[in-house]
Design brief:
Helix content: 25-40%
Shape: globular
Number of strands: 24
Strand content: 15-25%
CATH class of the largest domain: Alpha Beta
Number of helices: 19
Structural class: alpha/beta
Number of domains: 2
Radius of gyration: 29 Å
CATH superfamily of the largest domain: P-loop containing nucleotide triphosphate hydrolases
Length: 629
């Protein structure tokens, strides 16, 4: 350890963090393929786990490794501030990897050596995450990593795929938690054997984990400090859970070195360890310092600013913060399902829109009916299995085959029965085109179907700006020379969806899911819907935005909960976008009455052969001309 990377200089020792020596010993076990550490700051994870293992791989094991950071900039900083100083300060390593020059074998983020390599990547680069396979995989700060890398899923899961060809693959994941339910490291730890480091009491010898609740300190009624009030952090001590004896920092540190791991859940191939800053023996992690930090955070919390307390929970206690936003729970929401069959338009629904989310092995589809005041009813939530990239007309034996796209067309462009015995056709379709791997085939499908009469077929992408309107006119043309027609002047355009505002309206704390009964804005679904619908609909929460360094801003952003799928929510957002594209929210009662009268008077045979969407007053879909011409 050099002065460039650490306050402690010289040969590394596990004296101050023996729990990590035990954790790395577990990595050597044949039956362990995953190591997880949910941790606070100051416990020595980067030095003890990441740098130690990388040095061992380069010098002794001769293995291949990928280390993933939240962003490429963090990877560059790690290389310059941690990795290369370790190499320079360790003669055995500096002989293997030169740091004074850059060659094809020694780049800033790629170190090649006889018998292996080390590669540093950012979770925001799909090319880096998916391009290389390795036996050893590291993830630094998973809660800051990309949860939906260009529409292809969690970057951590994608990285894990890079090691599946190795029978003895090892994965090390370590980081501080964030918001409860959202935290990726918390979810990883929940699937481990959930170990805690128990330490013996200096007086009664009983073992126990170090927890914040056992920290005590005194107050002085005569004090009135500007920042600390009557609190005296210098009197802080730890109280034994068994005998009540008081420990000082020196006794606590000695107890840590005499500690042992205790497993609290069954072992299934993953070893997990939870650590808070009480386990740190660093000078700035003394009881007095931690108590002072808590007092200041608590003062701000009482004044209405929770940001410092969230950081205290995450970075000091190693715990996620429970952010109470008043959101619905899936089990409670399920009880509100109405009794009508799927693929049937409930009474009140007069216009249909569809949202399609494209995954690598399936298409997720929601069809929703809309009525007066944007009251809406779920018609269908389903998935069409198959590879969207496979558009072959025949199988390997030459037999005709039906692609996922043909199945999608059969579902979307056939009349759908209304419960009052007339039929409707879909008037708008929004299909996700954000995945770089599938965007071309999505564009081809949109080109093929955008000329269908009286149905607006749109390639859509989610917008990142919180202030973006749900629907806005597309600005960028994908291909201006696709076809020699008037439309080629503008080409195929992608609609950017204001997903943040759409989710606010649908599932926000004061959104449509909070409304009950019937009337404007009510959001209905059938109780016969597929089991995962409600859970996927509530798969995201609006939480404080986490900034670099683990701090939080006052801005609230939507984020997917760890381990949950959100395709149903995305599809519902695209359905709402389709309704806004058709300007259904601007229709008057007279418009709705006229439309309903026309639909009910239309002969059954006519609606089966002509799209019912043509009966919508022309002005409500006149914007189709703006985009196609």
């Amino acid at each position: 350890m050099s002065a460039k990377e650490s306050a402690i200089v010289g040969r590394f020792s596990f004296y101050v963090n023996p729990y990590l020596e035990w954790l790395l010993e577990q990595m050597m076990r044949r039956d362990v393929n995953r190591i997880v550490c949910v941790k606070s700051a100051q416990v020595g994870w980067t030095q003890a786990a990441i740098l130690n293992v990388l040095g061992w791989l380069i010098h002794i094991r001769k293995g291949t490794a990928i280390v993933m950071f939240p962003k490429e900039g963090a990877a560059q900083s790690f290389n310059a501030e941690k990795f290369e100083p370790m190499i320079e300060g360790t003669p055995e390593l500096s002989e293997i990897i030169p740091t004074k020059s850059r060659t094809k074998d020694n780049k800033q983020l790629f170190k090649n050596f006889v018998g292996g390599f080390v590669k540093f990547v950012g979770s925001n680069s799909i090319a880096d995450v998916k391009s290389t396979s390795a036996r050893y995989l590291f993830v630094e700060e998973p809660d800051d990593c990309n949860l939906n890398l260009r529409g292809q899923g969690d970057a951590i899961k994608l990285l894990e795929e890079r090691g599946k060809s190795f029978r003895d693959m090892k994965m090390l994941i370590g980081g501080t938690p964030s918001i409860k339910g959202i935290s990726s490291i918390e979810d990883e730890y929940a699937h481990s054997n959930q170990c805690y480091w128990y330490v013996p009491c200096p007086d009664c010898d009983e073992f126990q984990p170090l927890v914040w609740e056992q920290i005590q300190w005194r107050k002085d009624p005569e004090l009135n400090d500007e920042h600390l009030g009557q609190h005296k952090p210098a009197t802080a001590h730890y109280v034994c859970q068994h005998c009540g004896s008081h420990w000082n920092d020196v006794q606590k540190n000695a107890a840590i070195r005499a500690g042992k791991p205790v497993e609290t859940a069954p072992f299934r191939g993953t070893v997990g360890l939870a650590l808070n800053e009480l386990y740190s023996q660093m000078h700035n992690s003394r009881f007095e310092v931690l108590v002072e930090k808590f007092i200041k955070a608590n003062k701000k919390l009482k004044a209405g600013d929770a940001s410092e307390m969230i950081v205290f929970f995450n970075a000091t206690l190693g715990l996620s913060w429970e952010f109470k936003d008043g959101s619905e729970k899936p089990d409670t929401l399920k009880e509100r399902g109405l009794d009508y069959p799927p693929m049937t338009v409930a009474r009140g629904g007069l216009v249909l829109t569809a949202g399609v989310d494209v995954q690598h092995d399936r298409l997720a589809v929601v069809i929703r009916a809309w009525g007066r005041g944007e009251e809406s009813w779920l018609v269908q939530w389903t998935e069409i299995q198959g590879n969207p990239l496979d558009v072959r007309p025949t199988d390997d034996d030459g037999n005709p085959r039906v692609t996922v796209w043909q199945k999608l067309e059969a579902m979307l462009f056939a009349p759908i029965r209304h419960i009052d015995d007339f039929y409707l056709n879909i008037s708008a379709v929004g299909i996700d085109s954000s995945d770089g791997n599938t965007s071309d085939v999505v564009y081809d499908w949109v080109r093929t179907n955008k000329r269908r009469p009286d149905v607006l077929v749109m390639a859509v992408k989610g917008g990142v700006s919180a202030g973006l309107e749900i629907f806005s006119k597309p600005r960028i043309s994908i291909d201006t020379d696709y076809r020699n027609t008037k439309a080629s002047k503008y080409g195929l355009r992608v609609f950017i969806v204001g997903t943040s505002k759409a989710k606010d309206i649908l599932i926000g704390s004061h959104g449509r899911l909070s409304l009950e009964g019937h009337g404007p804005g009510r959001f209905h679904f059938t109780k016969h819907v597929r089991e995962d619908y409600c859970e996927q609909l509530l798969s995201e929460r609006k939480i404080p935005k986490r900034k670099n360094g683990g701090h939080y801003s006052a801005e609230l952003v939507w984020q997917k909960q760890a381990g949950k799928r959100n395709e149903a929510l995305d599809c519902e957002v695209y359905c709402l976008h389709g309704a806004r594209a058709l300007k259904l929210h601007l229709k008057s009662e007279a418009d709705w009455a006229k439309l309903e009268n026309q639909l009910r008077q239309t002969p059954l045979f006519e609606t089966k052969t002509k799209p019912v969407a043509e009966f919508i007053p022309l002005q409500s879909v006149s914007m189709m001309d703006d985009f196609d011409d």
